[in-house]
UniProtKB/TrEMBL annotation:
Residues in SpaA-like prealbumin fold domain copies: 419-535
The protein, known as: Uncharacterized protein
Domain Surface adhesin CshA non-repetitive residues, every copy: 20-228
InterPro entries given in the database record: CshA_NR2, GEVED, SpaA_pre-album
Pfam families xrefs: CshA_NR2, GEVED, SpaA_3
Highest taxon listed in the record's lineage: Bacteria
Range of residues in the leader sequence: none
Species this chain originates from: Lysobacter enzymogenes
Length: 654
């Protein structure tokens, strides 16, 4: 996003908080003399297709003999502290950020005027529009010792106010640094005893474009000068989406020194207040492009200012449909927001309907609304969202280009073309075995399947359904169920399985049928909810033996003695058992006597093992008419059966 400036530099190292914001001026190679008549340096920093052109000059140089000033590299003297805050390449002699101005003659007092102006525009000349400077920065570039009367000073020549931005002193040092405010001047006093490095402070001339500087060295003294700029907050979506630099309008609060010997080591320092027009709570700036595939480069740069949205909800694609996002913001009705979504995933935000309608930041939030393209302009899968806010709507109506104020934030977003949800149900007969469970699967032809294993008892399914959200448009998906691993084993063969789907898309496909697997290929806007229903139909094999032998025993069946029918009273026996493989519930037993028999009265029932006699009095009339209901007979696993009933029926042989 930013091309490096030729004669001014941003620090790349050190603990300073404003490495991306203080443009330090470099006056020449170390020890190079500054022309006594003054010098002017113009530095151009490219921001997208525009240029921030900063021009600063030194004039009215006086003090010492011959050339009064020379260039100085902070860190040349071991006690310097500025290089600990701001450097390139390291501290001490490794530092190449040579931005100091020193008295060329030891012990000399030197004064000069430092003034800056800026333009911002496409021509990189003075003809571009004036760009407001946030303020000037100055710092002691070489350690000052009060025992030698050393100091550096800045005096305002016009509007402005003083703040202390940050300080440094080497670890373990207890010496406090001080400044003195007298009228329109701020003096950074020397200290005693000195720290191994420092103490040193970064002073800010808030709102100033010009100041008279002064320095006094017992030997060498040096001052560093810079300009505070906030260029620029940029997007971090992949490079194909283009950049959208914003020049946020930051303001400082606090850190205002007063009187003599104001202690900057212990007093509160200035704080950077967020711009009035912003997305979320924070804004930061960067000096290089931070685009990457995850749109996360700006998140990891200084503070995470991509904070308007903690996460971005997936977008459900609907041809010509509406999509909206509620965006936290500040700035009120004067702030306009545009949003951009790459609906066709072609690597830009330039296609029809990819830009939202403009909306104002009302209160603390705004609802950003898109009307989606038609079906040809919608492609499901991973994509990107860009949000832009500012006070000049015409600067935001394009997804790229500079905006003088506000902020830009980029996010990854998933575009959902279709959704498949797969449920499980059991008929009223429930599970064959109490531990029976089932595995649901939605498996795309390529990719990861959505799998869910059921829980629950009886006819209940307590687990959530399987869901594939998104499901790929145009991709075949196999929906299936299989047996979960249980004890005893779940046997799907014991169930009849059907499936049925509904679709929230009017007129959309809705497969149904029988079986434990089927395939569906979603189209755009399909929202399928499918269900596999298992019905356990018990399989039983009822057996009945009928005899009038008085001593018949089902456990030792055979031709009984004395079973010839003679006129008179007799009792015949029905023996009923179940060869399975399932238990029988509510079976009906019906028997109509053959000719020559007349039967009446009650039927006597005896149960053996896990078998249950009919409820209440059982009559011969019921047996011969609708039949007797047998509540239960468990299946017998051996022969002769271990679970059975005997019904004794009183009759007359005619």
């Amino acid at each position: 996003m930013l091309a490096p400036a030729a004669n001014a530099q941003f620090a790349t190292g050190g603990s300073g908080a404003y490495r991306n914001n203080i443009l330090w001026f470099r006056w020449g190679n170390n020890t190079t003399s500054i022309p006594q008549g003054g010098t002017t340096i113009t530095n151009s920093t490219r921001v997208d297709d525009q240029f921030l052109r900063m021009t600063c000059s030194l004039s009215n140089i006086a003090g010492g003999t011959g050339a009064s000033l020379m260039a100085y590299r902070p860190g040349d003297y071991s006690g310097d502290g500025l290089d600990d805050l701001y450097n390139i390449g390291g501290t001490g002699t490794a530092n190449t950020l040579g931005v100091g101005l020193a008295n060329r003659v030891d012990g000399a007092s030197v004064t000069a005027r430092f003034a800056c102006s800026a333009t911002f525009g496409p021509t990189n000349t003075g003809a571009d529009p004036v760009f407001p400077i946030d303020g000037l920065v100055f710092a002691d570039a070489e350690q000052s010792w009060s025992q030698q009367g050393e100091f550096v000073r800045a005096t305002l020549t016009g509007a402005g106010s003083f703040r202390i931005l940050e300080t440094f002193r080497s670890s373990g040092c207890q010496t406090n640094g001080t400044v003195t405010i007298a009228g329109s001047s701020m003096t950074m006093n020397g200290s005693n005893p000195l720290c191994a490095s420092g103490p040193v402070a970064i002073g800010f001339l808030d709102g100033a474009t010009s100041a008279d500087i002064a320095m006094k060295g017992g030997g060498r003294s040096a001052i560093a000068l810079g300009v505070m700029v906030f260029v620029a907050d940029g997007g971090d979506a992949p490079a194909s989406y283009g950049d959208a630099p914003h020049l946020p309008d930051f303001r400082f609060t606090g850190g205002v020194p007063s009187g003599a010997n104001w202690n900057y080591s212990t007093n509160a320092l200035a704080q950077l207040a967020p711009p009035l027009i912003r997305l979320g709570a924070r804004v930061d700036t960067e000096t290089v492009s931070l685009s990457n595939a995850n749109a996360s480069g700006d998140d990891a740069n200084n503070s995470d200012d991509e904070d308007a949205l903690a996460s971005v909800a997936s977008v459900r694609l609907r041809a010509a449909g509406s999509h909206s996002i509620v965006v936290p913001c500040s700035g009120g009705a004067a702030a306009t927001i545009y949003g951009y979504i790459d609906f066709n995933r072609d690597g830009d935000f330039l296609d029809p309907n990819e830009r939202s309608a403009a909306t104002a930041c009302s209160g603390t939030s705004a609802t950003v609304v898109w009307t989606m393209p038609d079906a040809a302009g919608l492609v499901d899968g991973p994509s990107y969202l860009r949000l832009r806010i500012g006070n000049t709507a015409s600067q935001l109506s394009s997804p790229t280009g500079i905006a003088t104020g506000g902020e830009v934030e980029d996010y990854p977003v998933t575009l959902i073309g279709a959704t498949i949800t797969l449920h499980k149900a059991l008929a009223a007969t429930g599970r064959r075995n109490a531990n029976d469970q089932f595995v649901l699967s939605i498996a795309p032809a390529s990719g990861v399947a959505a799998i869910r294993t059921t829980t629950g008892a009886g006819a209940a399914i307590d687990s959530a359904p399987a869901s594939l959200d998104p499901a790929g448009v145009g991709t075949a998906h196999t929906l299936s169920e299989s047996a979960a691993t249980t004890t005893p084993a779940t046997d799907l063969a014991r169930y009849q399985t059907t499936y049925a789907c509904t679709n929230a898309r009017p007129g959309g496909q809705a497969p149904s049928g029988s079986g434990r697997s089927f395939t569906v290929t979603p189209v755009l806007n399909d929202d399928l909810t499918c269900i596999f229903t298992n019905t356990w139909a018990p399989t039983v094999d009822l057996a009945i033996a009928k005899t009038n032998a008085p001593a018949f025993d089902i456990r030792a069946p055979g031709d009984g003695a004395n079973d010839a029918a003679r006129p008179g009273a007799t009792v015949y026996t029905l023996s009923i058992w179940n060869n399975g493989p399932d238990d029988v519930v509510d079976a009906l037993v019906r028997d109509v006597p053959q000719a020559g028999l007349t039967c009446s009265g009650n039927v006597a029932c005896t149960s053996v093992g896990d078998a249950v006699c009919p409820t209440g009095a059982a009559t011969v009339a019921e047996l011969m008419a609708g039949g007797l209901t047998i509540p239960r007979i468990a299946f017998s696993t051996s022969s002769p059966p271990q679970h059975y009933l005997t019904l004794q029926v009183p009759c007359q042989v005619l």
